[in-house]
């Protein structure tokens, strides 16, 4: 503590140094994602945002808007920006109209694909194995599309731009796309095993959508 620094200022500087929000007390660069330096704090925030996404997506068709709002909240949190819960609900409201359309289309697509898979397994259709594989691939594509669109949505650009950007996002980062598909599969499997785990799984999915593009930038 310097002579010109009060005890209160020093304690505030120590907290800023520990959580990475800077400035640092020692000669080292500030953390790239200062909000993510505390593991337990990050875990708690992921669980909270998972709960909020779950509540906001109870009508099912609102899942894209809820997920987009959750992803934006996670981005603000790991950047150590002001991330109030009220901001999450504002994003849900702003993305609800277009998000509901996407949610409805996705719901219909999932229903059709599940029906195809069920028929393929029944033996009534020729080439059942091929149809079942196509069905599962279609479900993976739906999950991928929802996650990528939700990750790209902003109130300024809207859902149309987010959806149009999906092909480019897949083309530019094939490995990252595989990670996102695995994330969607993780949410489905965990929820199938124990439905209440959806809260934690969807929160982890929001974090994954934020983390995967950052991984791409680090490896370039």
Explained architecture:
The protein starts with 6 loop residues before the first helix and ends with a helix. The chain has one domain (47-219). By secondary structure, it is mostly helical. The longest helix has 38 residues, at 85-122. The chain contains 9 helices and no strands.
Quick overview:
The chain has 220 residues and is an all-alpha fold. The chain contains nine helices and no strands.
Topology, pairings included?
Layout: H1 7-19, H2 39-56, H3 63-78, H4 85-122, H5 128-152, H6 158-164, H7 166-172, H8 174-193, H9 198-219
Structure characteristics:
mainly alpha; membrane; DUF624 domain-containing protein; transmembrane; 9 helices; transmembrane helix; 220 residues
Main β-sheet description: none
How large is the radius of gyration?
A: 21 Å
Strand content: under 5%
H/I helix tally: 9
How much is the average pLDDT? 84
Low-confidence stretches: none
Number of domains: 1
Structural class: mainly alpha
Counting DSSP E segments of at least 2 residues, the number of strands comes to 0
Give the overall form. Answer: elongated
Q: Approximately how much helix is present in the residues? A: over 70%
| Strand and helix order | HHHHHHHHH
From the N-terminal CA to the C-terminal CA, the straight-line distance is: 40 Å
């Amino acid at each position: 503590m310097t002579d010109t620094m009060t005890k209160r200022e020093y304690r505030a500087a120590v907290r800023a140094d520990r959580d990475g929000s800077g400035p640092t007390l020692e000669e080292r660069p500030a953390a790239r994602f200062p909000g993510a330096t505390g593991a337990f704090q990050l875990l708690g925030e992921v669980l909270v945002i998972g709960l909020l996404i779950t509540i906001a997506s109870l009508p099912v068709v609102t899942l894209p808007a809820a997920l987009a709002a959750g992803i934006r909240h996670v981005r603000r949190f790991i950047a150590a920006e002001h991330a109030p819960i009220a901001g999450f609900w504002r994003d849900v409201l702003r993305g609800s109209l277009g998000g509901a359309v996407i949610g409805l289309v996705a719901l219909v697509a999932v229903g059709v694909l599940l029906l195809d898979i069920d028929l393929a397994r029944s033996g009534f259709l020729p080439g059942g194995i091929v149809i079942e594989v196509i069905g599962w691939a279609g479900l993976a594509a739906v999950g991928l599309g929802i996650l990528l669109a939700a990750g790209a949505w902003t109130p300024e650009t809207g859902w149309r731009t987010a959806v149009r950007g999906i092909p480019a996002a897949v083309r530019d980062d094939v490995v990252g796309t595989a990670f996102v598909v695995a994330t969607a599969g993780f949410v489905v499997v965990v929820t199938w095993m124990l439905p209440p785990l959806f809260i934690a799984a969807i929160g982890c999915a929001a974090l994954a959508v934020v983390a995967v593009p950052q991984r791409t930038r680090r490896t370039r």
